[in-house]
Amino acid sequence: MENDRPLKMLHGYGFGNARNDLTEKKHIIERRIDDLQEKGYGGIVTNVNMGQNYLKDAEDWELFQYALQYATQKYGMKIWLYDEKGYPSGSAGGLTLRENPDFECKGLVLVKKSASAGEEIVIEKPRGHLAIQAVYSIDKENKFRDLSTFLSSQGTLRYTAPHNCEIYYFITKKLYEGTHAQHNTCAARRYISLTDRKAVAAFIRNTYQAYTDHLEDLNLPKDSVQAFFTDEPSLQACYLNKGLDPAQIDDPFDPEFPLYPVVAWENGLPELYQKKYGEALLDRLHELFEGDSCRAKTTRYQFYTLISDLYEEAFYQQISEFCTAHGIAFSGHLLLEENLLHHPIFEGNFFNLTRHMQIPGIDMLFTKPENVLRFAETPKLLSSVASWYGRKHVMSEISGHTENALGIPFDIHDIVCAQLIQFVLGVDIFNSYFDDNILTTEENKLLCDTVARVCKEFSGKKSMANVILYYPIESAQASVKGSDLQLYERPYDPEAIACEESWRGTIDALLRNHYMFDCADENVLAGADISCENCCIINTVSDIRYHALIIPKLAAITITALELFQKCADCGIPVIVNDLSPALTVFGTNTPEAGSHAIIRLLSSENVTNVTSQSDALKSLRYILPPNIELSGDAGQIIALSKKDPLSGKISYIAVNVSDASKEVTFTSDLREPFDAPPPNTLFCMDPESGVCQELPVKILSGDRISVFAEIPARGAVMIRL
Fold this sequence. Notes:
Elements: E1 7-10, H1 22-39, E2 43-46, H2 58-75, E3 78-82, H3 95-99, E4 106-115, E5 120-123, E6 132-139, E7 144-146, E8 157-160, E9 165-174, E10 187-188, H4 197-215, E11 225-231, E12 248-249, E13 262-265, H5 269-277, H6 294-325, E14 329-333, H7 343-346, H8 350-354, E15 361-364, H9 369-374, H10 377-389, E16 395-398, H11 401-406, H12 412-424, E17 429-432, H13 441-458, E18 462-463, E19 467-470, H14 473-479, H15 494-512, E20 517-520, H16 522-527, E21 529-531, E22 536-538, E23 545-546, E24 548-551, E25 556-558, H17 559-570, E26 575-578, E27 585-587, H18 592-603, E28 608-611, H19 614-624, E29 630-632, E30 638-644, E31 651-657, E32 663-670, E33 682-686, E34 693-701, E35 705-712, E36 717-721
Parallel strand pairs: 1-2, 1-17, 2-3, 3-11, 10-12, 11-14, 15-16, 16-17, 19-20, 19-24, 24-26, 25-27, 26-28
Antiparallel strand pairs: 4-9, 4-13, 5-8, 6-7, 6-9, 18-30, 21-22, 22-23, 29-32, 30-31, 31-36, 32-35, 33-34, 33-36, 34-35
C-alpha cells in the first residue's frame, strides 16, 4: 500500500438543487472528484450519505458506488471507508441501539455521604439510574459493613449510623448525559458499549458488512479500497465538553440528569474481575474513586486493565478480524490520545488496542508547528505500535480544529510544516479535514506535493531507532479515580502528574536532541529478544536493535516489568530510570517488601542510572549513545528523522524547522558509515516544499567524519541523502 498523497475527508457532495435528479447528482460527484484530483489529492475517505435513512437508502448506495467507481477507475484514487454517521463510531447512526437498547454504554456511579454517630442517612435511588451494585459503610478503623439489608424495594437506603463512618452507594447508569456522546460537534446520540462483544458485532453487521456487501459487484481496481476508518470510539466514562451542544440531536437528553462520579462498567464485570484476579470487586468499589494506598492503587490498576482487555476483545479484535477476512485494513483513531492520564478513562493500553489496526492512526487537532510538537507523544506512540507489530504505515487525521475553535490564524506554511513534523514522528498517511475550498488550488498542491516528495524519499527505508522509552500505562491506570468533574478539571495526585510530565518531557527532549526512539509497554518488552550476546533489545518483527532503555518517572509498576528492566541491565543494556524509589507501588508481589527489594536490586545494578531530571537523563544518554543525527545551530527548534535503505545502505535524513525563523545548521556524520569508498565532494539535498534539489559541499573532518552546512527556512525542511 503506497499513499504518497494526502486523502481528503469527504462526507458529502452538497447536492443542493439537484433534488431527485440522479443524473445531476452524479455530475456533481464527478466535478467534486475532478476538483480534488486537480488539487493533488490521492484519494478520499468517504461514506454513504448521512441522511435520514443512513445505511438503508438504495439511491444513497447507488451514488456512493458511483463515486467509488469514478474516483478509482478514472484517476486511480485510493478509497477509505468512514464507519459512522458522524462520530463517535459505534452507533451506526442509532441503528445498533434500535436493534437492542440493552447494548447501550454503561457506567458505575458513586453516591457518598458522611455519617456521624446516631445520624440517619437517607439516599434515594438516583433518577434514571439502573441497578444497585453495592451499598456499604466504612468507619475510621476501616471496618466494612454491608448495608444492602437497609435498602427498600425502590432502592432507597435508610440507615442510622452507630458511629462515624462513610456511606457508599454504587449504582449503574447509561452513559449519555454529560459525556462525549452528548457533547460533540456532530450529533447528540446514545452510544453502544464497546466492551460488549454482542453490541460491537451488531455495529459490524450494520456498518462494515453493509459496506462490503455494496462493494462486491463494483469491479474496482485491485486494492483501491484500502481501509475502514473508525472515528473516536471510547468508553465514554467521563464528563466533558460542557456547553458544546451539537445542532443535531438524535436522542433527547435530560438537562437535569444527576451527574455523579463515574467509571466505566459492563454487565457481569464483578464475575469477570473475580475470575481474572481471584478476588471480589464489589466490596472494593470505593477504591475506584478514592484512596492512595497500595491496595487502592492495585484495585484501580486491575480494574482498568480488565476494562482495557474487554474493550480490546470486543471492539478492536472483532473489527480487525472482519477487515482481515475482507482484505481491507482497519484504521482510524481513538478519542483524546494526547494525555497519558486520559488513556484509562477513555480507552486503556494503546499498545494492546491499536495493535489490531493494520494501519494504526491518530488525529492531530493542531496546525501551529510548536503545538504539533507539544503533543508529539500521540504520533510517536502509534508509530511505535506500528514498529513493534510490523505495521508499515501510520495514519493521521489532520485538521486545524483547535486553532479554528480558538480563533488562532494559520497559513499554508503552518499546515505543511505540521505534516512534516508528523512525518518525522512516524506518520506517512495523511487524511485531511482542511477545507480545500478555502485553500487555493496552488496551496492544496503545495500540501499534497510536499507530502508526496517526502513519502517517496523514505518509502521502504528502515528505522534507525536505537533507544526505547517505556510507556507507563500502569501508572495511569493506578492513578485515575472516578470523578464528577469535567475532564480538564479533574484532580490528579502529584505522582500521577509527575509521571505524565516526565513521559511527555522525555519525548520532547529526545526529539529536540535528535534521538531516534520507539516507545514500548511491558508486553512488547516481554516479547522482544533481550540479547545478552549483543547487549541490546531486538525487535523480532523489524530487527531494529535498541541499545538503551529509558524509564520515565513512575507512579506504579508491575513486578514483571521490573524483572524485564533487570534483565536488560544484566545483559549490559544501559537502563536510565527517573527518580525511581524503593517506596514505589509494585503490583504482583506477595508483600510490599518484595517490590522494594526488586527496585533496590535494580538500582544497585552496574548498568542502571537513576536520575532526578530530564536534563540529567539526556546527559546520561549522551554518555552512552550519541544522537542519531548530529546538528549544531538548531537551538532545539529542529526535529529530524533518519532511515536507511536496506539494500544500498544509504541513509535519508529530513530535518524540520518548527520555528518562525530560518536556521543555519551544520550536519555532521561518521564517514565510515555508510561510506566504504572515498568521501563524496557533495551530498544530495532537496527542499521538500519546492522540490528544488542541490548538491551541498562536504567538509572533511578529523576522525573520519564529514559535515555539511544547510539553511532551513522558517517552518520549512530539508532532505539530505548520504
